[in-house]
Amino acid sequence: MLRTALPEIVTGSVPGPKAKEIIDRRAAAVPGAIRCAYPVAIARGEGAMIEDVDGNRFLDWIGGVGVLNIGFSHPEIVEAVKAQADKYFHGMFNIVTHEGYVALAEKLAQIVPVKGDSKKVFFANSGAEADENAVKVARAYTGRPNIIAMTGAFHGRTMLTMTMTAKKAYTTGMGPLVNGVFRAKFPYLYRSPAGMSEAEVIQSCVDSIQDLFEEACQPDTVAAIILEPLQGEGGFIPAPIEFVKALRQICDQHGIMLIADEVQSGFCRTGRMFASEYWAEAGCAPDILTTAKSIAAGMPISAIVARSEIMDAIPGGTVGGTFCGNPLACAAGLKTIEIMERDNLAARSREIGEKVTARAKVWQEKYGVLGNIRGLGAMIGLEFVKDMETKEPNGELVSAMVQACVQRGLMIEPAGRWGQVVRFLAPLVITDEQLEKGLDLFEEALVECLKA
Question: Whole-model pTM?
Answer without folding.
Answer: 0.98
